[in-house]
Amino acid sequence: MESRNTRSYREFVHSLLHVDGLKGAYAGVLCLDAHGAVAFADGAFHAEPHAPSRHLVRVALPSDESDDLEDSDALLDTRQFLRVFETHDTARHLQLHALHVGDTRFQVVGASFTSASAVASGRRHALAVERLPFGVLVVVASYPQALERVLPLVGAQCARARR
Asked: pTM of the entire structure?
């Protein structure tokens, strides 16, 4: 039985990301509270109930050879997504850095004070990191979804949520 908090996040994610053009467009969603602790994980992200920290989550992204989800033994520290918004010169800072999800390295291709977009090598995966009033939303989209279409749609939906 899921908690009321989990149910609230699930409903929020559903209302935010299940619009025309985004249905089924993402591989995973992660909601973090203001401290970077995992509040909700779905799809490629798996909350780790027995992890030593509430900032750790397991990741399963489709591999390059197959569309099947490939489990990673590595735990992802979600605090890297909070650090995206810590600097005043976000865009310049992020162009020098990459975000890591499991074994996949995402190079940042766009950033602002409220969002960052990144793509993996070969453009097989895309990552959207969005600052929201309650914390941070992380969305991973995977091929065959048109990444040029998914990232702007996620950004537009999150901009509406910030108003």
From this structure: 0.81
